[in-house]
Every structure is written in structure tokens, then in C-alpha cells.
């Protein structure tokens, strides 16, 4: 009987669900999570809590905003049937394919896709100009 003592990478359901990488069998997943969590430290100056008209408000520092924006780098906003849907890609090739290829049609409705930006406004119509090729079958 041959026994392979090399640890093979195993993707656990938890890792896949949380968007993590490959874990090695026998590795303490909680320990690796704690190690990544310790890389980030939230300081008291990063959060400003206040009350605005009796409603609690939380303002974050520019450092925290930059961290959050970095996480949203590969996010696109989809508008389908009048509803906004956001999706965060993990692969730059998939992100570019969705933005560049198209137009996308789902259930006979055009799906508009736009990259997420800091100044994203869901009330703003996007895109403002669409180039379309229309074929009229009864014309020569």
C-alpha cells in the first residue's frame, strides 16, 4: 500500500463561501483567519460617532474609506428591470468580459452594466448614450 504524506490543497466549503483561498488539510482555519484579521487595526481616530437630528451617525476616516474602496475595485452595478444589483468579481478577466462584451439581454430586457465608482449615484441614468444597430427585415 502506498501512502502519500504530501498535504494536498483542499478548498473547504467555508473558504469557498467566504471567498478565501485554498486551505491545507490539517490547518487551523480559525488561526489563519485571526492572522489576517490582525493585519488590520481600527484606531479611535478612524471612527467618528455622532448624533444628527437624533439619529446616530458614523463617519469613517479617509484611511478606512480607501480600504473599503479597494475592496470594491472589481464591483459592477447592474440595472435590470429597473432594479440595481451589485456584484463583486474575484477575477479581473471576468470583470473585463462583463464590462466590454455585450450588450446583454435577459428576458428581452437590456441589462446595463457600469463599473462602481466612489461617486456612484443610482438615480443617475447610465449610460446616457447608447449606440445600437437595428436591422429592419422588410427593408432591402
Please provide a written account of the structure.
The chain has four helices and eight strands, in the order E-H-E-H-E-E-H-E-E-H-E-E. With 140 residues, the protein is an alpha+beta fold. It has a domain at 75-140. Strand 5 and strand 6 (83-88) form a beta hairpin.
Low-confidence stretches: 22-38
Order of helices and strands: EHEHEEHEEHEE
* Rg of Cα set: 23 Å
Instruction: Specify the overall morphology.
Output: extended
Neighbour order of strands in the largest sheet: 6-5-8-7
Strand elements, count:
8
- Separation of termini? 75 Å
Mean pLDDT: 71
By secondary-structure content and strand pairing, the structural class works out as alpha+beta
Q: Biggest sheet: strands, sense, closure?
A: 4 strands, antiparallel
Helical fraction equals 10-25%
Q: How many helical elements?
A: 4
What percentage of the residues does DSSP assign to strands (E)?
25-35%
InterPro entries: At4g02000-like, DUF4283
Pfam families: DUF4283
Protein name: DUF4283 domain-containing protein
Domain DUF4283: 84-124
Layout of secondary structure:
Layout: E1 9-10, H1 13-18, E2 23-24, H2 29-37, E3 47-52, E4 55-60, H3 62-71, E5 75-80, E6 83-88, H4 92-100, E7 104-106, E8 109-115
Antiparallel strand pairs: 1-2, 3-4, 5-6, 5-8, 7-8
Organism: Gossypium aridum
Domain DUF4283: 84-124
Pfam families: DUF4283 (PF14111)
Would you kindly provide a brief summary of this structure?
The protein has helices at 13-18, 29-37, 62-71, 92-100; strands at residues 9-10, 23-24, 47-52, 55-60, 75-80, 83-88, 104-106, 109-115. By secondary structure, the protein is an alpha+beta fold. Strands 6-5-8-7 form a 4-stranded antiparallel sheet, covered by helices on one side. Strands 1-2 form a two-stranded antiparallel ribbon.
Amino acid at each position: 500500500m502506498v501512502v502519500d504524506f504530501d498535504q494536498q490543497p483542499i478548498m473547504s466549503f467555508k473558504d469557498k463561501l467566504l471567498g478565501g483561498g485554498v486551505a491545507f488539510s490539517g490547518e487551523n482555519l480559525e488561526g489563519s483567519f485571526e492572522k489576517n484579521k490582525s493585519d488590520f487595526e481600527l484606531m479611535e481616530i478612524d471612527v467618528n460617532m455622532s448624533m444628527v437630528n437624533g439619529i446616530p451617525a458614523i463617519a469613517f476616516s479617509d484611511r478606512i474609506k480607501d480600504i473599503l474602496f479597494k475592496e470594491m475595485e472589481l464591483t459592477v452595478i447592474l440595472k435590470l428591470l429597473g432594479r440595481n444589483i451589485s456584484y463583486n468579481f474575484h477575477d479581473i478577466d471576468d470583470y473585463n468580459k462583463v464590462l466590454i462584451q455585450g450588450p446583454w439581454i435577459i428576458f428581452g430586457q437590456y441589462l446595463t452594466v457600469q463599473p462602481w465608482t466612489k461617486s456612484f449615484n443610482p438615480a443617475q441614468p447610465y449610460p446616457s448614450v447608447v449606440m445600437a444597430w437595428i436591422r429592419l427585415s422588410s427593408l432591402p
